[in-house]
Design a protein that fits this description.
The protein has six helices and six strands; from the N terminus they run αβαββαβαββαα. It is of the alpha+beta class. It has two domains: 154 residues, no CATH class; 38 residues, no CATH class. Strands 4-3-2-1-6-5 form a six-stranded mixed beta sheet, with helices on both faces. Helix 2 links the parallel strand 1 and strand 2. Helix 5 runs antiparallel to helix 6. It is globular and about 55 Å long. The relative contact order is 0.17. The N terminus and C terminus are likely disordered.
Length: 199
């Protein structure tokens, strides 16, 4: 959950359609998540202006009255319009509630064993997959996502690409016209979309 991109090469090669960060639901957690989203947006925009269309911060908290090993989590997912975040100055602190475009709340079961809530970093790592699976199912319609990095490794916690971009990249790497045609059907080339190249 650090604020670096996995590598500059990754940012140069392709831009995701969306990014998600998973954070504890408190002021510092939400602020850190928003800072990371803004940073990643800035880096990707440098190589692929305007390619990222979706930014989400998924904040989790433990319901009141839960024991040391809770069986549920409360999650709040905030969707941000990249255009709003691009308008902010680098060190500008705007009111959080005025920045997001959509908010979704839910209580989700923890089906796998978790670390004790007293071990804060260990607990966060142990619940990430459950939160990621809930988010992908409810907000992304089960579209393919890269597993993200999580923990203390660099990169976003959740990364997803448009299907057209994926087919375009496969066409370029495999020199397969079938994938190129699929990409053209999904996203007719205009010469303006830097996310993929169709041979």
């Amino acid at each position: 959950m650090t604020s670096r991109i996995a590598s500059t090469t990754d940012a140069r090669q392709r831009a995701p359609a969306g990014l998600g960060e998973i954070k504890p639901d408190h002021v510092l957690g939400r602020r850190e998540g928003l800072t990371q989203l803004r940073y990643r947006l800035c880096v990707y925009d440098k190589y692929h202006p305007g390619a990222i269309q979706d930014l989400w911060l998924i904040a989790y908290s433990i319901p009141k009255g839960s024991g040391a090993r809770p069986v549920y989590l409360d999650v709040r997912a905030f969707r941000f319009d990249p255009r709003t975040l691009r308008k902010l100055q680098p060190n500008e602190r705007a009111e959080f509630d005025k920045l997001y475009a959509k908010r979704v709340e839910d209580r989700i079961p923890l089906t796998s064993p978790t670390k004790s809530r007293t071990n804060r970093s260990g607990f966060g790592i142990s619940v990430e997959k459950t939160i990621r699976d809930w988010f992908v199912k409810t907000q992304l319609g089960n579209r393919p996502v890269e597993p993200g990095t999580g923990s203390n490794r660099p990169g976003a916690d959740i990364i997803w690409y448009e299907l057209a971009a994926l087919y375009g990249e496969l066409a370029a790497e495999l020199s397969d016209p079938h994938f190129g045609e699929l990409a053209r059907q999904l996203y007719p080339p205009t010469g303006r979309d830097p996310r993929y190249v169709v041979p």
